[in-house]
Protein 1
Amino acid sequence: MSVAHDVGVTGVGVLQVVVIGIGGLVLLGLMRKVRARIEGRVGAPVLQPLRDVRKLMRKERLRPEFASWIFPLAPVVLVATVTVAALMTPLITTHPPLAGGSDLFVVVYLLLLGSTLVALAGLDTGTAFGGMGSSRALTIGALAEPALLVTILALSVSSHSSNFPVIVRATLADPAVIISPARLFALAALLIVIIAESGRLPVDNPATHLELTMIKEAMILEYSGPDLALVTLGEAMRLALLLGVLVNLSLPWGVASSTSVGALAIGTIVLCAKVAAVASALSFVEVFLAKLRLFRLPELLAGAFVLALLGVVSGVVTK
């Protein structure tokens, strides 16, 4: 029985990483396709990001002459940290391989480690645009981090734990907690933070090619070949993971409670459907949004902090 359980846990880990890896790239293609259709364009195929990554892996790797070891290490760390976070997160099942260490604080800081190293790599190139994009990204991260930490506290109040699988299992056992003021405030704050951290509108425009307005893209202008492929894969995995966290905290139904083949199949299908629906809705809304000025971003992220704080207060008062 223990051997079968071990095989199940290993299979869950492989499945979640594959779903986040391939699904993240497909998710990027889906969001671009939805936005193109709404704007009246045909748009690239949904699988285009997969083809782009495959093409980049075959190209030559070029690096700045005076870049240090940080520049080649950043893409590897980005993919590695998201992979470990995927092994900790209850995406398909409430029993992820690293459930014992699946603390929301750990997951958050793993993701921040990868994005921070990419920002340092942008500074490491010594170019003006790379430094500008990195400074802006680090500024946004510094503003979003307090809201994110308070959001985790708000999510932890109802289940008396910051362990992610425990929170999801507690939500499945008591679905009424989803419509509680504490959870609604926390989820609203989490959505704003996810938009900021993933570089979506109105914080950043992922489709822009104007250097003076780029944030995420400005940091990776010097990457090419396999390095750029890893950065693209890591950012896609990160977006898919963050949206997976959001949907499983807001709509946890469909998450498997075991590691059986049937339960995992249903969990995978439900997760993909929920993430695709949320991503499509975000793409739809982005068409009608304009990028905020950089000096207006603190107001948006301060609003997220206030929402998270209201979630903590509501959870403590109504507990």
Protein 2
Amino acid sequence: MQNVGTFNRSEGDLGNIVALEHVNLEIPDQSLATIFYSMGMGFTRDPYLMTGITNMWINLGRNQFHLPTGKAMVLRGNIFIVIPSRAALLARLAAVKELLKATQFSVTEHPDHVLVTCPWGNRLKCYEPEPQFGQISLGMPCIEMLVDHGSAEPIARFYREIMHAKASTGKDDAGTFARISVGPSQALIYREADSTDKRPYDNHHLQIYLADFSGPYNRLMARKLISQEDSVHQYRFRDVIDLDSGKILHHIEHEIRSLMHPLYARPLINRNAEQNNRNFVPGQEAYVWTTP
């Protein structure tokens, strides 16, 4: 039996935000999105919801991309992706290169990750499973967004006081950042960067689930930050502000859901992207969850 005090119990503290589920990015061409996200990245189109030609939901582990048809949206920063195999990813992306040659699609290899740019400019930093990503072997562990210098600490404070999230600041080789816990091994990173590195906000959004749903709503409402009332189990806000001055530090719409939302923890189907009709093995069509 372990002695009392052996474990650091704070490592199990999650904060009020319990899951980051999806990122919503409008795209102008559903066919190109299929080539990139399904054929190239190896993700799975949700077979049950948004199966038409005007929107697609793309599953990757327990996360999704929502891709409605519209003017292309580009997240100001990077979307971190965990994929089971770097070699398999590179092979798939090489196979679709010619189909995407008239777009912004690109692939750049780095020692620890592969940087993949989607046909419309979104940057996906793709890693194989690592301890920093916990038990995620396929999924979206992090969204990294670029903000002005001096913004990291007030952003962390906003999430701590308004959202009751677990939030901290730090520094690494790339500079100062705020880290907001948004689920097991999931985070929002607000990284301070030169303003010339940022793109104008185009209404893309991310979606999170809260354990305490009404508390943040009341605090946001008191500051007139609620941007949309969707349903009894969903609301939105888009401005992350300095709580002292009211200055807007970043625009990013948050689609907020309660744990009573009917889509919470819905099982997502994921295929084994390394299976095809030439190497088919019966019973291996689905991606099997494993601990790295």
